[in-house]
Write a structure and sequence with these properties.
The complex is a heterodimer of chains A (214) and B (309). Chain A has 214 residues and is an all-alpha fold. Chain A is built from ten helices and no strands. In chain A, helix 5 (83-109) packs across helix 7 (125-140) and helix 6 (112-120) runs antiparallel to helix 7 (125-140). The termini of chain A are far apart. With 309 residues, chain B is of the alpha/beta class. Helices cover 36% and strands 19% of the residues of chain B. The chains are: A mainly alpha (214), B alpha/beta (309).
């Protein structure tokens, strides 16, 4: 286990990259998801169709394929980003599709009476959503959104296929230099736990506080 | 969800699955056999001299009497030993070296005189030791550990880790010019360890699990160079000679030898003599030009044969 203690700095550097990768991606994915959910419940038909098209094309393909296609495909179209930026963009639009579906489910839990009440006091669709529906919807989906965040931390390991030096990427390097794959992989597992387990507790706490008691 | 809507959703899926399953059969290629006799006739009967004479009991005489030489080579190494999937011929520089040895045994007509066996890196020593093959020419680096188990004739070629760049690149001329440059190689490879040791200031932050991805990154301008064994890089140049070139300054040394059964001194001397003759009469260069040389890489000076004790 000396391999682990000798290379704590490597795991720490990987953890910071993974945290930055997931933090940025989740923040943007929330925005994408809210827009998607709004489109999916909007009264405008083309918007609904477009949002559904987005969700189904994105989530029905493995993340690895998205990642490699983006990294090697975009430069041919004139978009060349660093591995890290490419990974943030891909994780954002990928997770965004799931976030959108989760929020839409939350929207469906908001009672019909709420929408009717909002309409009766003269709020337009955007205001209904922003002031009445979304605040209630989001509170009811804290736990599933938390699961998505946790999944995102784990999914972010795919970024190592496009040379992002996250926990997985740095572990892979360490395996080469130390020739101790098992020890290093255990170290990688522990490093992911350092990130995901406190996250799980945090999400539970937020969920308990925000949950609507019915 | 009502039952009707459920079936409406499921039926197309089922149909897709069935179509996909039925497509499976005709997509299959005929199974490649690992052994086959596909000798080529490079000398016509008119110019063929009679077969050479060998003292009874020598390996050369045994092979000649058997009428077939078993050649172990790679089947998956472009330009060196590659089984061509369209015509099932085994082709490459290693194969040509094997043919030179076969001609020295059988005379110039070696039609159907070579039995090709695939020898992957894992099985090479065993194949020689167990007598499954007479000679192994398979990008086979001579080293001390292997010398304990088998004998090597040659070397017939010195491979080494080299650098691949875009054809337009003029700034990278060798390992010393990699300082601060982005260099791609494969995760977990000895090529990565080598470059880190020999060019510590090169930026090796971009690595993939395949060299083809490194080459793609090179073409996209994400990295400025790709590094690994020159023979692998030559394979990529062969695929895209207009955009890629080899720096051609190898910085490691991998002498490729011909694997032979341990202790057969007469056979080893014979193979070494044959190599030297091939160096002198131009057939070694001809072998290079017909295979690896097709990438535009000029034939190197053949390495001196090492008749180690």
């Amino acid at each position: 286990m000396g391999v682990l203690t000798d290379n704590l700095d490597v795991f720490w550097a990987g953890l910071r990259t993974t945290a930055a990768l997931t933090g940025l991606s989740f923040m943007f994915a929330l925005l994408v998801g809210i827009v998607l959910a709004a489109c999916r419940v909007s009264p405008v038909r083309p918007l609904r169709a477009a949002a559904m098209f987005y969700v189904e094309t994105v989530r029905n393909m493995p993340l690895t394929v998205h990642m490699l296609l983006a990294f090697f495909g975009w430069p041919k179209l004139g978009f060349r980003y660093s591995p890290f930026v490419t990974a943030v963009i891909v994780l954002t639009y990928y997770t965004g599709a799931f976030v959108g579906e989760t929020i839409r489910a939350g929207v469906n839990t908001v009672g019909r009476g709420q929408v009717e009440a909002a309409r009766s006091i003269g709020l337009g669709f955007a205001k209904q959503l922003r002031l009445v529906v979304l605040p209630q919807a989001l509170r009811s989906v804290v736990a599933p959104l938390g699961s998505l965040l946790s999944a995102l931390v784990r999914n972010s390991a795919v970024a190592y296929t496009i040379a992002v030096l996250d926990i997985m990427g740095r572990s892979d390097r360490l395996i080469t230099t130390t020739a101790k794959p098992l020890e290093v992989l255990i170290g990688a597992a522990l490093t992911y736990y350092v990130l995901t387990i406190p996250l799980a507790f945090g999400i539970n706490a937020v969920d308990r506080r925000q949950r609507i008691i019915r | 969800m009502s039952k009707r809507r459920f079936t409406r959703f499921l039926l197309p899926l089922l149909a897709i699955a069935m179509v996909a399953a039925s497509c499976g059969d005709d997509g299959d290629k005929p199974k490649a056999t690992t052994s086959g006799s596909t000798g080529t006739s490079s000398g016509s009967a008119a110019t063929a001299s009679g077969p050479p004479q060998f003292a009874a009991g020598t390996t050369m005489a045994t092979i000649q009497a058997r009428g077939k030489m078993t050649l172990g080579t790679k089947f998956d190494q472009p330009l060196f030993g590659l089984k061509n999937p369209t015509n099932n011929q085994v082709e490459g520089f290693d194969v040509e070296i094997g043919k030179i040895i076969a001609k020295a045994i059988f005379g110039s007509d070696i039609t159907n005189k070579i039995d090709y066996q695939e020898t992957t890196s894992k099985v090479r020593e065993d194949a020689v030791k167990d007598g499954k093959v007479d000679v192994v020419v398979a990008t086979y680096t001579i080293n001390d550990a292997r010398k304990q188990i088998i004998d090597f004739a040659g070397p017939y070629y010195i491979a080494g880790q080299d650098i691949l760049v875009k054809k337009s690149n003029t700034t990278i001329t060798g390992i010393e010019s990699l300082v601060g440059k982005k260099v791609c190689t494969v995760q977990g490879s000895t090529s990565l360890t080598n470059i880190q040791a020999k060019a510590p200031q090169a930026d090796v932050s971009i690595t993939f699990d395949k060299y083809s991805l490194c080459v793609e990154a090179l073409k996209d301008g994400r990295v400025e160079a790709v590094t690994t064994d020159n023979i692998i890089l030559l394979g990529f140049i062969n695929d895209d000679p207009t955009n890629l070139k080899l720096v051609n300054k190898p910085f490691t040394t991998e002498p490729y030898g011909i694997g032979l059964k341990k202790g057969d001194a007469a056979f080893r001397t014979f193979v070494n003599d044959t190599l030297e003759k091939a160096y002198a009469d131009g057939s070694w260069k001809k072998a290079w030009d017909a295979t690896a040389g097709k990438t535009g890489q000029a034939a190197p000076t053949p390495p001196p044969v090492n008749r180690y004790a």
